[in-house]
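Example record used in the benchmark description.
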Amino acid sequence: MKRVIAILLSLTLLTSMSACSNSENSSLSTQVKTSESVENTEPIHLTNKMTETELAKVDKHSLTLLDAHKVTTKPVTNEQTEHKVSIEFASIPIDEIISGLEAAKEELPDEEYGKLYEKYASNIESGEDYTYPKYIFVDDQNIFNNAPLMPPTYVDGKLYVTDTKYNSETDSYETTTNTYADMDDYLDWIRRKFRDWNYPDEVIEKIEERILIADEAYRNGNYETLPEGSVVYSESDHSYIISTDENKDYRNEWEFDRQAVEEIRESIDEIDIYDEELDKNFVVHVTLPPGYDSSKEYPLILLTDGIWRFGNTPEMRKVMEDGKSSPVILVSIWYSYDVEDTSGSKRYNDLVLERSKSLDFITDNLMPYLGESYSIDYNNSTLYGHSDGGVFSHYALFNSDLYDNQPFGNYIIGSPAFWGLYYDYPNLNPEEYEKDYGYFDRNRKLSKSVYLCAGSQEDPDYTDSYNGHDTTLEGVAKLKERLESHGANLTYKLYDSHHYQYIPEMLIEYLKEKYPC
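Model output (structure tokens):
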């Protein structure tokens, strides 16, 4: 009898030890340890405050990110007899030309100034703006391919080209305007320039060919004029492309391991969602954990900057599969696939300048909507933000008490770029950030848990951005002090890393520690 009891006890122990590693078959797999900082143990229910317009535009479907649209171009070959030449023009207002020449006269040598004046002389006489071909394409191919050159401009039979060189002694870029007597003279310079950049001869020949085709079409007026803004820079192709309503598709800009995503594709839902307040469309990816059971509640991690962070979800889900964490719903958010933001201006606008509207969207629209489609434990869910997103997650944390909806019990504030709050824009109010938006004037203590992190080597990464204000690490250190002074449930860690390289490691570590098996 004792032997039977011992066997039963050992089986019970094995079952409890393997609960997370075999989540599809274990009824214990969804039991998650709750952070001590989350005082509210009652289930949280959110109110969906989406407008009729917003609700009508929601579209939940299977993953389409892997169906990346490739912009195709027809190569120029010697056998072709007809070519399509497309030009996007730009203009310089005459008053800017005049003021620019006045400034140049003081700074440039007489010979350089003479060339510059000659280029704009006819415009000064006529009082008309200067219009020039900003981008030239032959058969949808940029005539300079990936070369860092401006296209030539033509004035009275002469060619003018702006050449920009880096001066290592002054650590700055210097711009000069070169003049060429004719096309042969210009092409000689092109050959020398591209050979200096180690371009193969066959590539240089194709560039020459495109230049000659474009030159003939330009002189004969046999080209199509592209609307302003038609040409965009493609990070994936590292070149300028013509973007039209039919090919505005930036899925190629997303960073992820295609094979890793393919393996879990059936566990991913894709949601198109619109916010009226921001007047923007977003794409949301919901990655369900292994053995997801809609009758049970799961914590959720919302990752801002989905264009990069969605790529971390396969590895995070693998941690759950391997039984190294409890099951968690992983959600990432970014702009819709037809939106380009290589400059980061939209991201800064929505995560920093319009952070109040973005918080409204996530708190009262997105998270309640997700709760209607998935079983979410809001008490133990997490909002993640890094850099500008760290500014946003800090704002979201210290304004959370102003909302009826409470979708998060935990906040990750990664390398917050607080120095971006001191730029000369409306709605920033850095003094409010310095006081954590008055949260501790309204509340005795913080009822949420905080994971504050940064890279120990990152301060030099943005030296030119601080403008006399706290560096990233100085801002993080001061926030740490404020949180500790108020007895917040804080986890703090500096990774041996620059600004963003530590994020994949941090997310895996957070998943294991915050949601242990």
